[in-house]
């Protein structure tokens, strides 16, 4: 597929480079991936703490639910997100932490009426995909009862978590597509689209995910530089939200680099040909 457009030697060389990068970073790659992935939850949890009164008043005004329910909403978001982040970073009860963070994503989707905003909805789906990859990573160590002893059979649950996570991450790139007549934008749409498809189907997965990490990191720092906006401007909060959500998706892509595509992928099926 990709070999007909780009010389195979070039792709092989790029894969070798990607493998070298992986080998040199694998010691701190898991921690980096988790830190990036939980960043949007951590930022939002801290914001709930710092802007306690503002968040409570916003929920009360938006839904007319009263001070008590508005306070409960803010408290659940604060404790759920900060607690979930700590558990993921420390790798303690990761499935429960992912469940809590998943609940927060769904809760905020309805509470902030994100369900009717297609761009925010797609980004939240991508965020759920990243959480599924964290959940898949937590199952790696549980594949065998004893260290060094191979497990019997495939971990099908982990494979399907990886597949679903890859598919949901792709929604982030749909939100980046812009129908603008400019060379750079067209190149961005085409490159991002191709890489998105490759990661989704699990073809040349580690290489594609690593390129997407570099690509998305560049776009994130270029488009979402919230630190350059004064505190009093609402644009700062919007850019900050986008920045940390994108950083979480980058964490999901780093998880793909770390774990590989899983059993349900073209890369895995190619081994059987």
Automatic annotation (TrEMBL):
Membrane topology classification: Multi-pass membrane protein
Single biological process term from Gene Ontology: Golgi organization
Pfam families: SURF4
Annotated compartments: Endoplasmic reticulum membrane
GO cellular component labels: endoplasmic reticulum membrane; endoplasmic reticulum-Golgi intermediate compartment
PANTHER family recorded: SURFEIT LOCUS PROTEIN, SURFEIT LOCUS PROTEIN 4
Protein name: Surfeit locus protein 4 homolog
Higher taxonomy: Eukaryota, Metazoa, Ecdysozoa, Arthropoda, Hexapoda
């Amino acid at each position: 597929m990709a070999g007909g457009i780009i010389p195979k030697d070039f792709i092989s060389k790029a894969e070798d480079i990607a493998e070298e990068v992986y080998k040199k970073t694998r010691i701190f790659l898991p921690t980096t991936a988790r830190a990036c992935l939980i960043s949007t939850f951590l930022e939002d949890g801290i914001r709930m703490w710092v802007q306690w009164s503002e968040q409570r008043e916003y929920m009360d005004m938006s839904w007319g639910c009263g001070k008590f329910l508005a306070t409960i909403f803010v408290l659940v978001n604060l404790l759920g997100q900060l607690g979930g982040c700590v558990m993921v970073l420390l790798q303690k009860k990761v499935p429960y932490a992912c469940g809590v963070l998943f609940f927060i994503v769904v809760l905020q989707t309805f509470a902030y009426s994100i369900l009717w905003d297609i761009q925010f909805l797609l980004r939240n789906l991508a965020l759920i995909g990243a959480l599924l990859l964290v959940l898949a990573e937590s199952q790696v160590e549980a594949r065998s009862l004893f260290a060094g002893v191979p497990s019997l059979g495939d971990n099908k649950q982990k494979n399907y978590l990886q597949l679903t996570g890859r598919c949901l991450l792709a929604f982030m790139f749909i939100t980046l597509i812009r129908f603008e007549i400019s060379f750079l934008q067209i190149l961005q749409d085409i490159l991002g689209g191709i890489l998105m498809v490759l990661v989704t189907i699990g073809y040349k997965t580690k290489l594609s995910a690593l390129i997407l990490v570099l690509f998305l990191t560049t776009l994130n720092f270029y488009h979402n530089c919230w630190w350059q906006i004064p505190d009093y401007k609402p644009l700062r909060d919007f850019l900050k939200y986008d920045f940390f959500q994108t950083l979480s998706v980058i964490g999901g892509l780093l998880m793909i680099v770390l774990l590989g595509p899983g059993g349900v992928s073209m890369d895995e099926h190619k081994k059987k040909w």
